[in-house]
Amino acid sequence: MTPARIAGGAAENAPAPGRTRFSEIVGDGAAMRQVFNTVERVARMSSRVLITGETGTGKELIARIIHDNSPRCGHPFVAFNAAAIPEGLVEAELFGHVKGASTGAVTSRAGRFESAHLGTLFIDEAASMSLSLQAKLLRALQEREIERIGDSPPVKVDIRLIAATNVDLRRMVRDGAFREDLFYRLNVVPIVVPPLRARREDIPPLARHFVAKSCRRNRLPLRALSQSALRLLMDSSWPGNVRQLENAIEHAVAMSGGELEIAPDMLPGDIRHPDRAALVPAVTIPDEGINFTTVVSQLERELILRSLEKTGGNKRQAARLLNMSRTTMIDKLQRLGTGDSEACAGVA
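Structure (tokenized):
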């Protein structure tokens, strides 16, 4: 099933000009065909959807396509990143507040639920919500009403909720970090977006799509990708997924100057000269053997320290990068002897 086939299949709910179309999901490998099939079917429904996938795989794009090809397409699509806002402000952003409800609340303000009325509310990074906020979100979904902070009369809302996460919510449920009842409320129709490294056959059409998009946006003649440049793109590990690929192509188009063919030297340096150090360090096994437990513990320790370094010492965010709960990370820190005095001082 191709993007063109899907676009034709949803003709009765075709998006208005300027809206997101099925054809904007590029890829014809088996993994993406399964995503296409699910997206096409669920777009016409009002069912809640849970989109899971690594950062940069295009979860918000899929949410927009679902909305823009649904009966709610004439109403707002409201995106909300739960991890991008300080925890103390998330509730007010979602549910709104009345004047004087807190310091700084000089006027009443509607939240994202009210803004999305009759349309779609997309909550990204849903796993970052606190348990108390999860309880309020569950109630809003059950009762189809919300209460602004500082106000008692409930406000009826009619929204379709699409949530997204880059972590394993089932594991968080087992660890007690995510409510099981809310998980089942969100996970009505699951969509798993594969990472780019798991669908390398889609890299050439994606790259050409982004070349055309960049040339069109910058009013440049269309560039072609050389075979050697394509080989480099195919060989990259793409930890940033589709988002990283799009940025790499934008860089290459900018560096192409007056040339009509994109050569390898126009690609970003990290694509031309990737770090060839493997995630698992090379280990020479002597005749007398090694201590397996010690080697694995050293790798575990290194991964945890690197994730803490990447997040500026924030344990919650570091745990999310490693797809584990904060409690599990703290237990491992203690077991591995990686205390706060070692790259972890003042960690959140």
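Residues 292-310 form the longest helix (19 residues). The beta strands are 49-52, 77-81, 120-124, 145-146, 155-156, 160-165, 189-192, 224-225, 261-262.
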